[in-house]
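Assemble and predict.
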Amino acid sequence: MFYLVGIGLKPEHLTLEAQNILKECSEIYLERYTSQYSEGSFEFLEALLGRKVILTDRHEVENEFGKKLQKAKSGNVALLVFGNALTATTHIQLLLDCRKFKVPFSFIPGISLTNFIALSGLQEYKFGRSVTIVQPEANYSPDSFYDFIKENQKLGLHSLCFLDIKQEKKKLLSIKEALGILEVIEGKRKDSLLKKSVLVGIAGAGSSKMQIKAGSVNDLKRFSFNSFPQALIICGSLSEKEREALNALSV
Amino acid sequence: MFYLVGIGLKPEHLTLEAQNILKECSEIYLERYTSQYSEGSFEFLEALLGRKVILTDRHEVENEFGKKLQKAKSGNVALLVFGNALTATTHIQLLLDCRKFKVPFSFIPGISLTNFIALSGLQEYKFGRSVTIVQPEANYSPDSFYDFIKENQKLGLHSLCFLDIKQEKKKLLSIKEALGILEVIEGKRKDSLLKKSVLVGIAGAGSSKMQIKAGSVNDLKRFSFNSFPQALIICGSLSEKEREALNALSV
């Protein structure tokens, strides 16, 4: 069996289900190019499982995982992913490959950032589509995420913005950097969405250093977010109850 | 400390964090009016924790939980909620009460239905706002959820529909019943959103009986969904990759 396992945002987010399954696996891989822990370490995860965990990279998962999937025909092989799995297209492709090559598979869900957004006091059903804010590169500066945020706002909905890994692939994008990227787009378009909106920054979800800060662009720029991963919410219209909860639950 | 703990959709969804915390609690309550397990039982949960769990109802959580929160000033008290917590307004209110009465609290996330939607093959970032399909009552038949689904569709987005508990409060709404409710609204409005859309039914998320079925209204009506909780996705526009994944991953 091939197990695609979401491991959450810290080692303690492991579910009983994941622990039980990993005990039965002959090979356990961890991909860490899409995110990282908010607290705890790879070494602690290994100690917790009492098992060796093999690190794998994007290239291997996207191009060379077929051999591992073949092994899952006779044995148990697991791929661990931070947060919940299947958000990245690559991971869906692995399941499609399993179907194609008749490899049995099982999806094991994990705690993700989306499980924390209501802790801000914002109502979950008032979130529109999520977007990812991408760091512009020399020949590639997408800004479709800005259009999606605008569409959400027209409907009065909040936008959860995931923050991408920077192009060098070594650093997660920060809230401050994401605000800078949005301001550049906004400047080009002569728009004022950011200035008019209440924003919420979430840093280190699930860790003891978790921070939820609500305020204006300048409030968030001045605030010291000092843990990762980070995410940004751009609020749509706020009900009275949401305002009350946002004030009470964020710093 | 007051712990608001999401316990997921089956006992094995308990995280290490939740298990460790519950060991230190003098009183553990479980509210079960918003959902239920897809697999496993209350008794199994108690055995797993090795602790007594006290059942509580909506009235108590909404009106009389203040005394329990006061106890959390000196001891550790936990309220367990199926899935993730904080989706229901009542649970946010408990945290606001904690702030007001200076009771320290901690939010412990749990696996919820939203952690499973991408297993259908649909891309997570193509979901618009979520809605809850409500069973109409004699003097109360809301249909705003239909408007929200239409808005999502205009943007090409998928709609995740949670299915409410029926008015008698004893039975979770089924996919078939939800389709019936949507058809009545559609008939009144002379609309044809359902007929034109690809639909996905998800039953018993996380359990060994989990079913994901994609198709037309009639396909879903004919299909035997035999586990709970159930949910319905009304697809917006589908990319070629999504069609391929939907075909491969659903029955």
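Chain B has a mean pLDDT of 94.
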